[in-house]
Amino acid sequence: MITDFFSEVLRHIITLSPDTELFSDIRCAYYKKKLKKCGFFRSAPLLKIYCPKQVSIGNNCSFNYNVTIDPCPNGSISIGNNVLIGPNVVIRAADHNHENINVNINEQGHISGKIEIKDNVWICSNVTITKDVTIEEGSIVAAGAVVTKNVPAYSIVGGIPAKVIKNRKKE
User: What are the record keywords, sorted (predicted)?
Assistant: First the structure.
């Protein structure tokens, strides 16, 4: 119980620590011990990773300010190598169940899923990625997009919901 308390305090201190190379390295070292799998990454403050044992992060990734990664409660999130994630991105592998109109939504639990972000992907700022989505290698998700379906390799997607705008291989 006390160990859990101090672990939470440490997580909050690390989350709020300044945007310096030293604190980025400390955040990475902390999450290397907590995540299912974790390579080297850089992060700005306010990187929030919930249910860390259900999250994998590859090598050479970069997380900008205020990124939320949440596989809650039984989902999984996998981020490949060389992935860039912009500020204010939400990656959440669960939705609230809402099927029964006779029960309050907050009492119906969650529907968990899986999110996979492959290698060499750029997630621009203010993006939301929902459950059961795979973003294939080399793709770019435009700022403000809401990704609800799989993204093909080397695609640029944008909008709400996100749709393919362009294929990077045909440029």
Answer: Transferase
Closest CA to 114 of 156, 70, 144: 70
pLDDT of residue 16: 62
Which domain covers residue 59, as residue numbers?
Answer: 2-170
Supply the pLDDT for residue 3: 65
User: Which CATH number do you get for residue 82?
Assistant: 2.160.10.10
The string of DSSP codes covering the chain is -HHHHHHHHHHHHHHHS-SSHHHHHHHHHHHHHHSSEE--EEE-S--EESSGGGEEE-SSEEE-SS-EEE-TTT-EEEE-SS-EE-TT-EEE-EEE----TTS-GGGS-EEE-EEEE-SS-EE-TT-EE-SSEEE-TT-EE-TT-EE-S-B-TTEEEETTTTEEEEEGGG-
The catalytic residue among 12, 96, 98, 110 is 96
Number of domains in the chain: 1
135 pLDDT band, cuts 50/70/90, is very high
Known catalytic membership, residue 98: no
Average pLDDT over residues 36-46: 89
